[in-house]
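Many introductory courses stop at the sequence. We go one step further.
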Amino acid sequence: MKLNAGIFALVAMLPCVLPGYAAAQSSAPIAFEVLEIANAAQEQEDASRPINSQLPANARSPQGIPANFDEVEPNNTAAQATPLPGNAARVTANIFVNGDVDFWSFSGTAGDRIYAATMTSRSSNGSVDSTLDLIASDGSTVIETDLNDGTFGSTSSSIAGATLPATGNYYLRVTHASATNQLRPYDLYFQLRSGAPAAETEPNDTFPGEALPAGGWVSGSTSATTDADLYSLNLNAGDTVFISVDLDPERDTVEWNAQTGLGAFGAPPLFLVANDAGAATPDSEAFFTTVETAGTYGALIGIPAAGTTFGTYHASISVFPRVAEGVNCTTYTSTNVPVVIASGAAGIVTSTLTIPGNPRIADVDVSVNLTHNFMVDLDVQLTAPGGNTVGLFSDIGSATAGVQTTMNTTFDDEAAIPPLFTVINGNRVAPEFNYRLSWFDGQAAGGTWTLTVRDDAAGDGGNLNAWSMMVCEPPPPPTCAPGFVAQTVYSTDFEADDGGFTHSGMADEWALGLPATVATTTTNPVAGFTTCNSGTNCWKTDLTGTYNASSTQDLLSPNINLAGLSAPVIVTWAQRYQMESASYDHLFIDYQQAGGATPVRLFEWLDATMTDGPGNPVVNIPASSGWSSRSARVDSLAGLNTELLFHVDSDSSVNFGGLAIDDVTITACRALSADLQITKTDGVTSAIPGGSVTYTITASNAGPDPVTGATVADTFPAALTCTWTCAGAGGGTCAAGPVSGNINDTVNLPAGGSVIYTATCAISASATGTLSNTATVAAAGGITDPTPGNNSATDVDTLLAPANVSGTKTVTGSFLPGSAISYTIVLTNSGSGAQQDNPGNEFTDILPANLTLVSATASSGTAVASIGTNTVTWNGTIAAAASVTVTINATINPMASGIITNQGTINYDGDGDGTNESTRTTDDPGTATAGDPTGFGVLTISIPVPMLNWIGLALLSLLVAGFALRQRNT
């Protein structure tokens, strides 16, 4: 596009030299390049065609504009104002649709001063006329307003030094000067200043000037045409500078016409300056630029050429560091250079650059280094590997042969201004208002890129010395909160079917298939659409041509139910488009509740017509966005029944390739769910103190989700001393061991996996009661367990109290045949538990045949004498440390002789389980041998017995008794 179709005409190298600079430098003096205003041609061009007065009602969404903007709609009132971050901000927004109002809020204290300005030169509809108001805390009272004090563009707005009357919340309001026009986009710069500015230090008119005071706020004055105040500052590559100058800081209506700018740029070095005479008091100036290289720069406040007024000023100088629009930013440099731009004939030269791999573009900047004797002859376009072309610039720079013949700049959508100055050497610029590098966003960058340079006219030449691209990739998608996992709620690539999508509207031409739109280079060039993002089926507004005129076309997804799901909710889709200016044709993508409520704007077309007409003669080139993968968050719709809407509408003429859609996916977060469970057993129901038990503990995950970092714990009772080992199954992992002590293990349990612990534990001999042991399993990270009741398991064993019953057995009597004897059995329990009256006999004594059972008694319990079987039994309880005495009376058979021995059998509960499993025999305590039977000898006398008198009989009885006693003790 030639200069007469642009916003500004530029006058470079005005004969205004900084005093003292020539003496301080060996190079030529620095001059000024002044930005003057001549935008009537552009205003006329834009006004030559009616603008749609209003979009359909659903064209506005509560979330407003595309994700790469800072504005949050609706912000049409003070109550809805978008907060400005901190005391300094640079935000990008749109006045769209017609009559839109943007409110921005901030807080300040009494006496604070406000410096704010709009930069409207990038507005894609050409009209740059903004109104900026500083609004009081009530949301309606205007403290200060400005319509035309800005210079970028000619009718942009600038407020500098307005004072806040009281502490509170305040607002900046931005509108288009006309209720039937738009700003697409504008940049709002804001700086809040507290306290007082630092006074200038004279002399400060030698480049680069006095050091800018900390904070960047200075006060000064001019007194002569030769008085130019300079403030030096060190900048990094990509820094953006906002200079705002208050020309009536006293607010006494005494003001003067000043220019402000930054330098030095280009060769010979120039200060880039802006000057607007101002239409109403208080006057101010605003300047913006982005620097290409790091270094020391000078900020200028001075008198324009032929200026005759002087005065005081307050200058606020703010620096905004470059912020990458993405991650993994990599610069790729062309090796297909240098390329000669031949003199003597108009022509086209190309250079290629190959990007390896397949990085996805979140943002791309293009750096160009070339020389040409007549810069405005050049038009340059960039073509992606997929074939779509986007213009970088057309006819910019110096229109004077041999002046400012070097271009060394980066084209960056985020740069402060488009190429408004003839100097494009050392300053970073945005593409012109009708171009956007963002049309490459989302595309795959891998492959060969082509830079095309067109020389409009013969007679001048140069060289393309170097060019490069910096590609920043999208950041990783947001992740779900701990305890949640991403779930694909809906996904389609349209290969098998239409994905459930439906379409409707006036002159609707949405169709599913393989696009076959042929590229044209007519007056309204159409981009070729011949592929889908994947496969061979995708939706397009017209598979074989342009979208219809006077159409309203909606493509609507089926219902997508997000019930039970939470943020982040992410919509991803692939798109390709070519549209006429948003002044006439519209494209937006909304995610909304089923039926259309609460829409969230995912993407909105707000740019200029996607065509390029470079060259001489003009070549009509269709610009377009290539197939790109897009994503947007719609967290406000979590839990709702939703749908995805793709909308295109058009006016009555000039239609282009339209919109194509493919590969739609919606994901949201669901709570992680894992049915963790644990079992524990030692295989017995009772245990014996002093013994041992072996536990098997199994923790498992029945799914559906894996659990990483779950905890298995078992604090063993004090009565146990344990050592454990662990083995995993089904992918489960745990500490192998052996480990002594309690279990407190971090494990991983995939769905279907388990970990098995084997714990061998010794029981304290003094343990009593029951042995209760609980193991637990718990998920990490807030994972939901649908059945928490099985997350613990307890094994309970009765701790048995064993008895230990022993017995002694003694015998008394005369031991003569036919005489009576008596056995005394003492049963003693030395165990820790009582001997209970368990099933069966606790004591049994079967007398030998030489004896005849007479009776049996016991000190407790029940002694039974079974005369017929010569058997004595005893049943009863013997407490721990207690004894029972059983007495058995019998007679020695008359024919008995020799030694008679006898042992009773004791049956007792040696393990405390309620049964008499242990057996022991009685012991004769009178012998040294343990566990022996009790015996006695039967006294027999084989001599004739004479007839004795009573004295003789008495002596005989004493003899027999003595013999019996002797026998008992042998």
